[in-house]
């Protein structure tokens, strides 16, 4: 697994890099022997240290987790614990899926995708957030990236959304081929939008 450890306005020393490499490799290899790459970023959030972990476990499986503490090692350990919990849940769901219908291999490799665009709205570093363009009144699009619309069941979509620590995921429903959306509601439950074109 290729690992990148970085610090934003923090000097990440050799001891911390070594600790991150050993612990992350131990934690991820329990669930994925062949993880592709991982990024660990440290930063300050007021008086707290923040650690963000992003692991590309396999093609189409991206997991994100974060932690905060007044000690940098504790922030990393919190993020790693959350990451391991997500990976454990993912493996359990795949195992349950295999028991239920014998298609675990299909669930792991069901990444037929259609190109799509995702728009990321974010503020520049250390600049105030501009919610609208002053001339048009529309939200400001800061960056755009390519992404893929995966062909998934609803359960698989929820699993991908959890792993990526996203609030919503657009996917192509395997049952009927239409576009669907799952999202995390304010009450903590998962919402599912299954639009149908009227006849």
Automatic annotation (TrEMBL):
**InterPro entries assigned:** HPF/YfiA_ribosome-assoc, HPF_long/plastid, RHF-like, RHF/RaiA, Ribosom_S30AE_C, Ribosom_S30AE_C_sf
Q: Where in the cell is it found?
A: Cytoplasm
Q: Which Pfam families match?
A: Ribosom_S30AE_C, Ribosomal_S30AE
Gene3D superfamilies reported for this sequence: Ribosome hibernation promotion factor-like (3.30.160.100), Sigma 54 modulation/S30EA ribosomal protein, C-terminal domain (3.30.505.50)
Coiled-coil positions: 73-100
The record's principal subcellular location, in a coarse class, is: cytoplasm
Instruction: Give the record's keywords alphabetically.
Output: Coiled coil, Cytoplasm, Translation regulation
Q: Which family does it belong to?
A: Belongs to the HPF/YfiA ribosome-associated protein family. Long HPF subfamily.
Quaternary structure per UniProt? Associates exclusively with 100S ribosomes, which are dimers of 70S ribosomes. Interacts with 100S ribosomes.
State the function annotated in the UniProt record: Required for dimerization of active 70S ribosomes into 100S ribosomes in stationary phase; 100S ribosomes are translationally inactive and sometimes present during exponential growth.
Recorded hits in PANTHER family, A to Z, give: 30S RIBOSOMAL PROTEIN (PTHR33231)
This protein is called Ribosome hibernation promoting factor
């Amino acid at each position: 697994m290729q690992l990148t450890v970085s610090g934003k306005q923090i000097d990440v020393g050799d001891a911390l890099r070594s600790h991150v490499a050993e612990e992350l490799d131990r934690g991820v290899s329990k669930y994925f022997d062949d993880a592709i790459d991982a990024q660990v970023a440290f930063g300050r959030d007021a008086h707290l240290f923040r650690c963000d972990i992003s692991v590309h476990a396999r093609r189409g499986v991206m997991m994100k987790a974060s932690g905060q503490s007044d000690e940098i090692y504790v922030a990393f350990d919190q993020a790693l614990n959350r990451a391991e919990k997500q990976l454990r849940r993912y493996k359990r769901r795949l195992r349950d899926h295999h028991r239920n219908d014998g298609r675990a291999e299909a669930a792991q490799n069901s990444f037929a995708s259609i190109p799509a665009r995702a728009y990321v709205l974010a503020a520049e570093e250390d600049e105030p957030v501009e919610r609208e363009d002053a001339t048009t009144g529309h939200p400001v699009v800061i960056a755009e990236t390519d992404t893929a619309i995966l062909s998934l069941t609803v359960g698989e979509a929820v699993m991908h959304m959890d792993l990526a620590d996203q609030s919503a995921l657009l996917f192509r429903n395997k049952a009927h081929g239409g576009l669907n959306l799952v999202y995390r509601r304010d009450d903590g439950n998962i919402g599912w939008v299954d639009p149908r074109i009227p006849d």
